């Protein structure tokens, strides 16, 4: 109970009853309670040190209610955590699905340059290597000429039953008709006939430079 002071500062002998304990704090190492006085308004509540109070039942009731409130708050927080995790997991799954849907979105067809089936077949056939007379089962008749105009050696082959000649890579010709290749070069070799008279002339020419 708390003695109240009168206006002139004298201590009144009247004791005031505590209606309830509203709060608790520690100030300068001492515990104080915020008290509601019986018969007075909330505006006249005061902080009082624990050592001056004789309302242990009200203090104990306040402490018990405070502990119960803290336990209840703790349980409420724990029960809300799984719900939050579940909600966030649902949102994440939704976002993942949206991402997958966006990633698998079909690319629109290019309408600016449509190609017909005929053009597509033509392009595909142009990329394939051209068939030679050998691939068609034709028989080579002779070699008309040889060239390296395309950067690699090719023979101009005359096939039987075909009026026009055809350029065929040397790598193919050397395997298919090696004898005709040898014959072609033999016909174009220039043979030099060596005799004793020519040898004497060559010797005299070199002697003139000595």
TrEMBL record:
CDD domains linked: CD_HP1a_insect
Spell out the residue ranges making up region: Disordered: 58-134
Basic and acidic residues: compositionally biased ranges: 93-109
Q: Name one GO cellular component term.
A: nucleus
The answer to whether the entry has keyword Ribosomal protein is no
Instruction: Report domain Chromo positions.
Output: 16-74, 138-196
What the entry lists under InterPro entries is as follows: Chromo-like_dom_sf, Chromo/chromo_shadow_dom, Chromo_dom_subgr, Chromo_domain, Chromo_shadow_dom, Chromodomain_CS, Heterochromatin_chromo-domain
**The organism's place on the tree of life at top rank:** Eukaryota
Q: What keyword terms does UniProt attach to this protein?
A: Nucleus, Repeat
Q: In the UniProt record, does the keyword Repeat occur?
A: yes
Read off the Gene3D superfamilies from this record.
2.40.50.40
Where is the protein situated, by its record's location annotation?
A: Nucleus
Xref: Pfam families: Chromo, Chromo_shadow
Q: What is the name listed in the Swiss-Prot or TrEMBL entry for this protein?
A: Chromo domain-containing protein
Q: Where are the compositionally biased (Polar residues) regions?
A: 110-129
